[in-house]
Amino acid sequence: MGQFAVIGLGRFGSAASLELMRLGHSVIGVDINAKIVNQIADQLTLAAVADATDEHALKDLNITACDAALVAMGESLEASILCVLLLKSMDIKEIWVKATSKPHHTILSRIGVSRIIHPEEEMGMKVAQSLSYPMVNQY
Ligand code: ATP
Question: Are 20 and 6 in contact (CB under 8 A)?
Fold first, then answer.
């Protein structure tokens, strides 16, 4: 099974990391907030309090060995971009990133991340498709 790093364990990052665990993978979760890390620690392979913009901290956690990384720090553009650059310098090929604004999206696409995720927009579309489905069947 795969080894994943999830950086930022807010609502999005924690849901993704728990689902990866449920699917049988190994997950290293990182968040700067100790309270958040403590809440999820016993459910992940490893959960650590660290600043994801600190290269040494990421290396100490063996993030370099991960097959893929999910960067889920939506609010801080600076932390998100810096962290992506570090992950790229560690030669992690599969980097998926949550984006929260147009400028954030533009920068991420320029630096070549594998996938840019817009949770609200993507979920809105999925909900509309599910909502439309029973209606279509009525005709
Ligand atoms: P969500 O919607 O998933 O709850 P959000 O878009 O509101 O999240 P943020 O508030 O940016 O996202 O943060 C997500 C998580 O990332 C938070 O738990 C926060 O503590 C963590 N985080 C923010 N900056 C850093 C950093 N430099 N290093 C590690 N974790 C960080």
Answer: yes
pTM: predicted TM-score of the whole model, two decimal places: 0.94
Structure tokens at 25: 């993978």
Residue with tokens 């630096």: 111
pLDDT in tens, 16-46: 999 999 999 999 999 999 999 999 999 999 9
Distances (CA, A) of 132 to 24, 129, 135, 137: 33, 5, 5, 9
Residue nearest to atom 8 of ligand 1 (CA): 10
Does the beta carbon of 101 sit less than 6 angstroms from any atom of ligand 1? no
- Band (pLDDT 50/70/90 cuts) for residue 138 is low
Nearest CA to ligand 1 atom 16: 8
| Protein residue closest via CA to atom 30 of ligand 1 | 31
Determine whether the shortest distance from the Cβ of 8 to ligand 1 is under 6 A: yes
